[in-house]
Fold this protein.
Amino acid sequence: MSPAILTKELMPCLQLTWSFERPLAFFITFGTYGTWLHGDARGSIDRFHNRYGTPRLPPNDLRESYERSLLKRRPLRLSQRQRKVVMDAIKEISREKTWGLWAVNARATHVHTVVTADWDGKKVRSALKARATKNMREQGCWREDYSPWAGRGSCRKLWRHEDVINAVVYVQYEQGE
């Protein structure tokens, strides 16, 4: 599945000039339920260690085991069909809200987006997750009452043109197959 990137039809009039109060874009990531727990070998960030520029928490088998014991259901991996529906949903809401969608890539365990919006980044992230869930339900590929997503996610503010470009490249080309 190929990721999406900004096209003329997705954002006809975006200019990379913005006020000092708002970033040029947000780099938003949200994961599927139960697929990246604190203590994971990849490292993690929790609410007590969430400062810009600080390293991730190191792997911790004990903490990961504890976090796994708290899960209420099995971890979720998105199917190819679900991934397509999620990407289409994010493109759809971006058009409706006239947000500048620079890139979107739905993977089996997480979703990355780079988007310019005149909303708070956390509200954008919530709206993306809600629309993705709604569309999956409407298209019959999510029948559960609960959300497919992990709580929260990441929402980085991108203040420099270079940061936007680097985030788009990461989302578009550095996710593997």
Remarks:
- The CA atoms of residues 5 and 103 lie 4 Å apart.
- The helical segments are 61-70, 80-97, 121-138, 161-173.
- Residues 8-14 have pLDDT under 50 and may be disordered.
